[in-house]
Amino acid sequence: MSAADDVVGRIDRDELVKFALEICNIDSAVPLEADVAEHIYQWLKREGFAARRIGLLSDRFNVLGTLPGTGGGYSLIFNSHMDTAVPREADLVHRDPGNDVYHKAWLEGDLLVGEGICNDKGPMAAFLIAAKAIRDSGFRLRGDLLVSAVVAETSREPCDDIPGAVRESKELGARFLVTHGGVADYALVAEGTGFGLVWVEAGKLWYKITLTSDQPPFYTPYLPDRTTLAASPSMLVAGAAAVAAIEAWAAEYQKKNMYKSAGGTIVPKVQVGAIRSGDPNRPILAPQVCHLYLDVRSVPGQDPLATKDEIAHLLTKLGLNASVELYHFRPGYEAKNIERLAETVRRAHRAHFGSEPPAAHVETSSMWRDLNVFNELGIPALTYGPRSTSHSFKRALTIDSLYQAACLYARIAVDLCNQEKSRAG
């Protein structure tokens, strides 16, 4: 029996399910990751890993565990995020932010249900149990195996706030981890890809569009007769014309900027995600100001200032008095020198499933995830893991897919960390 087969044989499906439910029932809705972070930290210590808390804030910290190697092999870091996307507080995005599906996890037949299961504590449980099986086997890896749980992957970003008012930012998560010691030769970000390999992901450009009017804030009885939306004295109404123009531009933008590579295809979509204008306590007045907030997905190497100018030109053509501000910039990246890790993952996939990995869903390479942090900082990284096929209407993973993920992560670690590391790397 090979070392990999021995390790895989030690992965207990029931233990995996129990552990996944355990950590997913510790609510870590952004920005409340501290309780689950401490739980994982203590688990790592009990299971014999060298464990560290790594964080800028005491209530939002990353966790890093290390299984030291004997030397001479490649090191690998597994990464997932602890935060889930939906806060408990009421907002204008979610109809029911307190729904259990966002904050708890449970079994339904062969399904593990809950936001945390899918994104992203389920895959985290899989690689933690895989790493535990390696340690329990007594088989020594040559290279170090690192396991990491980070905050703030789904984090909000400051906008129009007093500095420090919003204690959230992706700098608190994977970036802070890597720049404070979470470094390995390769990184595997355990997120949903349908067990396809992804090593390119989109960037994010967030723009604030401000529309202003020189006309007075007309009281409703004095409102001029209507002409066109763009010519309205109400910037809230003019904003509707701007949204229509942006929607038409977005359809062409994603076609023109599609990015295809061996590591995945990016279809960079655009969304008008927020609007601020007027006063609900005084809807009797036509607002002189309207702010629109855009999420524009980008491809590696894209110039955010050129895209900003493109949006500004579009609005000028409408006759709107508009300014465009870039307030959030996360570039997209494609991994370099990824071949060794990619071939290791393919080999593990073939050994386990008896077939080549499928093509990853295009959505999984068209989003921004912590994969970009590792690739930006020079650690070749790819994303690989189970994906919910019902995520849009039921946040769930099958028990079997999570178990398969644990087995695959174990095979990948045993293989890669025992490959002899050349002096050239």
Salient structural properties:
single chain; 425 residues; alpha+beta; Aminopeptidase; Alpha-Beta Plaits; 34% helix; elongated
Description:
This protein has helices spanning 3-9, 13-24, 34-46, 100-103, 115-137, 174-179, 235-256, 304-317, 339-353, 362-365, 371-376, 399-416, and strands spanning 50-57, 60-67, 76-81, 106-108, 111-113, 145-150, 186-189, 200-201, 203-212, 259-261, 264-266, 270-277, 289-298, 322-330, 333-334, 381-383, 396-398. The chain has 425 residues and is α+β, with helices and mostly antiparallel strands. The model has no long low-confidence stretch (mean pLDDT 95). The protein has a six-stranded mixed sheet with strand order 1-2-6-3-7-16. A four-stranded antiparallel sheet has the order 12-13-9-14, with helices on one face. It has two domains: 3-202 and 333-416, Aminopeptidase; 203-330, 2-Layer Sandwich (Alpha-Beta Plaits). The chain contains twelve helices and 17 strands. The two termini are 30 Å apart.
